[in-house]
C-alpha cells in the first residue's frame, strides 16, 4: 500500500479503550491532511497528475443496542436511546483532552465498542492547513481557476448549525448526531477565530471573559504580566503557580518566570490590531482565562461566540458597562443579570424570542461571591452596590434619540434595571450552544436621569471601577473552576434529544 495515499472511506476498527480510539482518529486525520498538503505543494509547482485530490475526515460511531438507564447525573456522555450515533472529527491534536473524556464516558455508560473509521466527508484543502495558510495567495490566476477541479473547497452547506438549533431532521432510522458540530463546521470556526482575534485556537482557555471596553483589556494585560513576574502584588501569589504563560494578539507569548520562563513578549506589538483581539492567561490543563474585546454591538457578540463555541469552553461571562435605568442606581453600581430582554435581533432566526434564557444558579453564585470577596461587602450591605435584575439588550446604540415613551414602557413592563448591547446575545448564544453563561455589568451612565456618558465623566468612572470589576470576573472564573465541571455543566442547558458530546 502507498503510505502517501489517503485512507479511503470505511471502518478502521472497533475500540473498547478510549486512548486507542483517539490514536486511530489521529492517525486517519494526520495521514489524510498530510496527503492534501503534499498534493497542494505539488500543484503549486505545476503538477496536475492523478486527477482530483481528495481525502476524508475521520468519524466516530457508537451503536447503542440497549435502552437501559445510564448514569445521567452528568449532562453529557451518553446517547438518547438505541440506534447509531456518529460524528466526523477534526484536529484531534487540539481536542485531545476533550475527545478522550467524551470517548471514556461513552464506553463506560454504554458498554459497547466505539467504531472509528474514514468518513465520506471530504476535507477542504484550506482546512488541511491548521495554521491558517492562505491557499489562494500562493497561486497565479490560471492555477487558481483550476483549484476547484482538483481539490475540495469549503462548502457552507456542510457547516450549518442545524444540530445546535434542533432543526436537524435525520428521520427515525437515520444516523443520529453524536456531537453538536461536524468537522467542517469546527474547522471553519477555528480559522475564523485566528482571523478575528489574531491568536491561534490552541491558546484559547476554557473560561472566557468578554468585554466591550479597552480599559478592561489594559487591566487584564497588566494583571497577567504581573502574574508572570517573580515579584509584585502579594495578592497575586496564588496565581503565580497556576498560570504558565500569557499570550497576546500575534501569538506573542510571555512565560511565567516563577516556573522557569524567560521569554518576555511585552515589547512586541502587532502593527494593526484585529477586529476582536484575544488575550490568554494560560494554565497547563487549558483551564485558564481568555479575555476577548468584542467591541460594541450584538453582531460582534454573536460572531465571536459562534466560533468560540466549537472549542467547548466551560463558561463564558460578560463584563462590561451599561446604562442604569433606575433613579436609585449610582454610577459604579453593579448589575447581576438574572434575565434578559432580547432586542438584539441577531439571533432571532436561531433562537426564537419565546425561548427563555434563564439565569444559571452555579454562575450566579460564583459572581455574587466574587463581588462579596473583592468589595468586602455582604448581605444587606452588598445591596448598596449591586442589584440583581433584568438586563435589556438593544441593537440601536442611539436609542436615546427615539421617542422615549416606547422604550420607557418596555423597560417598565419588563422590570429592566440596565441596558446594553451585548449581554443578551452572549447569554442567548451560551444557552444555544450549551455553554454556561453569566453577566455582571457596571453602571456607567443614566441617560434617562440626566447622567450621560460624556468624555470627562466616563474617563474618571473607568479609572475608578475597571480594576475592581476585572478582579471580580477573574475570581468568579476561579470559583467556577474550583466547583468542578460536574456541577458547572448543567442538565438545564440540554435539549430533549441531546447529543452525547458535551
TrEMBL record:
CDD domains: AMN. Keywords: Glycosidase, Hydrolase. It is an enzyme of class 3 (hydrolase). InterPro entries: AMN_phosphorylase (IPR047039), AMP_N_sf (IPR037109), AMP_nucleosidase (IPR011271), AMP_nucleoside_Pase_N (IPR018953), Nucleoside_phosphorylase_d (IPR000845), Nucleoside_phosphorylase_sf (IPR035994). GO terms for biological process: AMP salvage; nucleoside metabolic process. It catalyses: AMP + H2O = D-ribose 5-phosphate + adenine. SUPFAM superfamilies: Purine and uridine phosphorylases (SSF53167). It comes from the Bacteria. Pfam families: AMNp_N, PNP_UDP_1. Its EC number is 3.2.2.4. Residues 20-173 form the AMP nucleoside phosphorylase N-terminal domain. One of its GO terms (molecular function) is AMP nucleosidase activity. One of its GO terms (cellular component) is cytosol. Residues 285-449 form the Nucleoside phosphorylase domain. Belongs to the AMP nucleosidase family. PANTHER family: AMP NUCLEOSIDASE, URIDINE PHOSPHORYLASE. Catalyzes the hydrolysis of the N-glycosidic bond of AMP to form adenine and ribose 5-phosphate. Involved in regulation of AMP concentrations. NCBIfam families: AMP-nucleosdse (TIGR01717), PRK08292.1 (NF006142). This is AMP nucleosidase.
